[in-house]
Amino acid sequence: MQEFDHIQSLWQSHSVEVKISSDEMLSQAKKEVAGIRTRSLLNIAGMIMSFAAIAALLIFFQFNSWATPAGLCIILLSIAISTFILYKDHTIISRNDFTQHPNDFLTQLKKYQLNKFTIYNKLYWFYAIALSVGFMFYFYEMLDNLSIWIQVGIAAFTIFWMALCATILRKSYLKREKERIDLLIEKFERISKQFIEQQ
Known about the structure:
mainly alpha, 5 helices, 0% strand
């Protein structure tokens, strides 16, 4: 029994260090960076398609009230500003070749993370308020033709949807993105450290 305890204590005190080569880590990081870039491009493409659809609505349809085109213009302006900011954010992550300059890319990745959370914490409210005002103007004419219960239902659903997006959905998205980018930053710090050790 004493021998077993001795073997067990030796086994527990023995730590095995798993070392991943810098090539393997770069390969993993490359996939993750490609995923971030793809999601960023998809966000930008979605915003451009939304802009085009609303612009087509403004150009090809006739409205009786001045409020409807005014609302559509506010929506278009908020989408255009947000798309421009998303594009600038995308250029941060796609500017450097991380396989050649891990330290430079690490700096850019930290800047990207800071910008991302500034966008989703501060700019989100500008975007949400601008869209809400734009939709209020837009629906001024549209809701006038509907019964009072449908108007109340649409207004209640809009308020519910905006509150859901502003709280639960936005926070869960931010948490997921923060974890993903933190993990990527940690990988690049380890890659940079391995490069320094190899030199």
